[in-house]
Amino acid sequence: MIFFLGFLQTLSLTLWLGAIVFFSFLVAPAAFSALPSRHVAGTLVSLVLTRLHQMGMVAGMLYLAGGVVLSAVAPLAPRVLSPRHLLVVLMLVLTMASQWFVSPRLVALRGEMVSIDATPADSPLRVEFNRLHRWAVWLEAGTLLLGLAALFAHLKKP
Questions:
Q1: How confident is the model at residue 1 (pLDDT cuts 50, 70, 90)?
Q2: What is the residue-wise DSSP string for 5-51?
Q3: CA-CA-CA-CA dihedral for 95, 7, 19, 130, to nearest 10
């Protein structure tokens, strides 16, 4: 059981990190280079990002649940509030902030603009969209960096 819980933690964290890398470096750039407009690409990226966030929240909860059970049954397991667990909690906070606060506003702004491509760069809607998009990128980058630190801490011998 102890091995399985450790495996579950490793799997959940690596799948989450792999999905972030796949999305950030392959899916999003491909969508914006292959699809006919930034508006269509943004719609696709928004849908995929929602799924990524949902998967990340499940993965983070599985990681933390595995840690709680391990700390109860394995005498040498890290404490529940160890650095690796706190890093995963921070990953969850950034993911939830992106999903529940930044992404809905980006979708609403994209709808108000009708076409991002046709909206002037100095339009208040476009300015706000660009500002929130930077936040979304930073939140995802922060989640990735925290995840790499959490994976390092997780794989380090206790």
A1: confident
A2: HHHHHHHHHHHHHHHHHHIIIIIHHHHHHHSS-HHHHHHHHHHHHHH
A3: 20
